[in-house]
Design a protein that fits this description.
Layout lengths: L14 H11 L25 E5 L2 E4 L4 E4 L14 H11 L10 H13 L5 E5 L2 H16 L3 E5 L6 H4 L10 H4 L2 E3 L5 H7 L4 E6 L11 H12 L2 E5 L11 H6 L5 E4 L10 E5 L1 H4 L16 H16 L2 H22 L5 E6 L2 E6 L10 H14 L2 E2 L3 E3 L6 H23 L3 H4 L35 H13 L13
Parallel strand pairs: 3-13, 5-6, 5-7, 7-8, 8-9
Antiparallel strand pairs: 1-2, 2-3, 4-10, 9-10, 11-12, 12-14
Helix pairs in contact: 2-11, 3-11, 12-14, 13-14
Bound molecules: pyridoxal-5'-phosphate.
Pyridoxal-5'-phosphate (PLP) binds next to α4.
Length: 486
């Protein structure tokens, strides 16, 4: 019998997941299109590998096990799976067409809606992926300033200008890689030291899990203006979620350009670039940013319904309240249960559970701790990757259930640590480390490694996944908790 969202006696059967994975592994590199959804982020042998359906905040895997989902498709499902108003809008649009030979009225209507909600959205353009718009923003900044260097902080997508700051930048020309540097969040001095007259822009997530300190964002904006660089907010996670107007509204700081995706269309592929008219004007001709599917109407219909629902039902406020309660309760429970090495951090709409090695017995790798918690949550019907990506579909009951599950699982973690048997308590391979930069100041991108003399022999599927893990471990700034967001 399949598992459900209860404290099940058994771990779920995942035979169909494993069978599909065996077919994918020899065919689809990485066996996923999104790193955070891949097997490397889930305890193998325990966690499901394929989902077939969702409703609200619940999902069903291909073995018919049901879970309370805390990942929510890695961000987009801000209203939950199969939201009635969004699905109705998509169906209605489907009846008149998907994409057209001329622009569709929805392009204007959704742009107007975005302008209403997002501070500084004097101009609005659409694309499909988050990295489409971060890349367009960086190119615009380069064109506008006549400079090439980029300072970044956080993850911004797979394109050349960014990815070479990680250890997965092979294939990026060294000249391109040399132009991008990272800086430390909340460390204005580090930016000031790096921001020279060759710097086109500073791009960052206005917040991830750490709140801006000492007016960091406003002072960063002033610094950029003083040095002639553009400030770009990557609002992939904060947009329409932290507040209706995103981080710009929440923190009262308007960037020169802002990039959105994820929550904007509740699961349909749409990204949005907004910003200053004098900068975005370059998109009229000189900076080329056009794509076949940018005006695809099903996604725009979904966006219109999503944005109206977010506004009319005050969803960002709901997420903030529910998530703050979850975070605070988690931390209180952790203290009560004697597991102070784990904490929940972040703003309510999206929080992170971290496992710190400090003060814990030797050999207690945070990734193993995270893997153990994931394994035990799976048994209790919770799909969890270390984050609480809340949606309007998550209820107070769901949060209560999750907290009960943690209350059940954290003492098991403590006992396994105290008895020095945590690794043996894992029923499968632990989750893998991934690249993620949050704290490295002005780290120069490393040159791509030289090509191997001869192509390596085709690896077995498991070895291929392992190679990725080994590569990721080389990153000196990899997050210790191993959480990944793309
Ligand atoms: C902050 C941030 N920026 C950019 C991206 C890239 O978005 P996409 O994967 O849609 O290209 C992501 C993806 O997770 C992200 O989290």
């Amino acid at each position: 019998m399949a598992n459900h969202v209860i404290f099940n006696d058994q771990y779920p059967s995942i035979a169909s997941s494993d069978a599909l994975y065996a077919r994918a592994a020899g065919l689809i590199p990485g066996a996923t299109q999104t790193l955070a959804k891949g097997v490397g982020q889930h305890v193998r042998g325990v966690a499901p590998k394929f989902l077939r359906a969702g409703r609200g905040a619940h999902v069903v895997d291909v073995d018919e096990n049901e879970y309370l989902d805390l990942t929510m498709a890695v961000g987009p499902l801000v209203l939950g799976y199969r939201h009635p108003a969004v699905d109705k809008a998509i169906r209605a649009q489907l009846d008149s067409g998907i994409t057209f030979s001329l622009p569709h009225p929805l392009e204007v209507e959704v742009a107007e809606l975005v302008r209403e909600m997002v501070p500084g959205a004097e101009r609005v353009r659409f694309a499909k992926n988050g990295c489409d718009v971060t890349t367009a923003a960086v190119r615009l900044a380069r064109a506008f300033t006549g400079r090439d260097r980029v300072l970044c902080c956080g993850y911004h997508g797979w394109h050349d200008w960014y990815i070479a700051v990680t250890d997965r930048g092979r294939g990026v020309p060294a000249d391109v890689a040399a132009l991008t540097h990272t800086f430390a969040y909340n460390d204005l001095d580090s930016v000031a030291a790096a921001l020279d007259d060759e710097t086109a822009c500073v791009i960052l997530e206005p917040t991830t899990f750490e709140a801006p300190r000492d007016d960091f964002l406003a002072r960063l904006k002033a610094l950029c203006a003083e040095r002639g660089a553009l400030l770009i907010f990557d609002e992939m996670w904060t947009g329409f979620r932290l507040a209706l107007g995103g981080a710009q509204a929440r923190f009262g700081v308007t960037a020169d350009l802002a990039c959105f995706s994820k929550a904007v269309a509740n699961g349909m592929p749409l990204s949005v670039l907004t910003g200053r008219a004098d900068v975005m004007r370059l998109l009229e001709r000189d900076v080329f940013f056009f794509s076949t599917f940018g005006g695809e109407a099903l996604s725009l219909a979904a966006a219109q319904a999503t944005l109206r629902t977010l506004r009319d039902e005050s969803v960002p406020q709901y997420l903030d309240e529910l998530g703050t309660e979850l975070r605070d309760e988690y931390n209180q429970q952790a203290a009560e249960l004697g597991v102070p090495f784990t904490r929940c951090v972040g703003f309510g709409c999206r929080t992170l559970v971290s496992f710190a090695p400090e003060g814990v017995a030797a050999g207690s790798d945070p990734l193993i701790m995270k893997s153990f918690v994931q394994q035990e949550l799976v048994k209790r019907g919770v799909l969890w990757g270390g984050f609480h990506n809340l949606s309007a579909a998550h209820t107070a009951y769901d949060v209560d259930y999750l907290l009960k599950a943690y209350r059940d699982v954290l003492p098991l973690l403590r006992a396994a640590l105290e008895e020095n048997r945590l690794p043996q308590s894992l029923r499968g391979e632990p989750v893998e480390p991934v690249f993620r930069r949050t704290g490295a100041f002005n780290v120069k991108p490393t040159a791509p490694p030289p090509s191997p003399p001869a192509p390596p022999p085709a690896p077995a599927p498991a070895a291929r996944a392992g190679e990725v893990a080994v590569a990721a471990k080389k990153d000196p700034t990899a997050r210790k908790d191993g959480n990944v967001r793309a």
